[in-house]
Amino acid sequence: MSQPLPAGSLSGKTALVTGSSRGIGADTARYLAQAGADVVINYRNKAPRAEKLANELRELGVRVLVVGADLTDADSVAAMFDQVRREFGSLDILVLNASGGMESGMAEDYALTLNRDAQVGALEAALPLLSSGARVVFVTSHQAHFIRTTPTMPEYEPVALSKRAGEDALRERIPALTERGVEFVVVSGDMIEGTITATLLERANPGAIADRRESAGRLYNVSEFAAEVALATLEPVPADNTRLVGDTGSFAGE
Description:
The chain is an alpha/beta fold. Helices cover 43% and strands 17% of the residues. Strands 3-2-1-4-5-6-7 form a 7-stranded parallel β-sheet, sandwiched between helices. Helix 1 packs across helix 10 and helix 4 runs parallel beside helix 6. The two termini are 33 Å apart.
């Protein structure tokens, strides 16, 4: 995988990526470590996978902390950031990547609990560690970002609505973050090939990936989108705090 960030560009920085034992989160953590950042890998229930990634990243010469935490559990989140404080003292980059809501057997309000409440909770818990110059990145999808003006597949709508609610709740905190010197940016991507969400959508709606690929011209894969998330930790924040990745021609403006 190519490196989107210049070598050493994040040296001396500490980054935490939620949901980073696999997929977009893991590749984002990998890119940040390649750029010199010390990394906190967060997972919910994939400890062996998280430890394997950590060992790989340590070979790059960076420090890596692996912390299991359920983002929907406030005590678990508080304990995670307490570990970060003890290990690193502060945090320069917080990537809010973990999301869900299509899992079977979860409570009816699980999507909203994870995609809105837990995102805000994680930010609030991280705030004491985020000093001036720090940056928060929220990862979402076009299907969620544009849900108020562009319908999505019925199977994904509850998740899309909950992720947009999370984005809105986080955006409400931009003035307070700005006062602290903390920057905030949303990274929104089209459907990503190879993600669990795309797989579940394809299972529920066969042909969904091919249809979207045809409409968009191409879809990003996991490592390509993770590279854009990594770039969002360093490149200037757009005026509207939004970094759109991939085709948006099929989506009406907000």
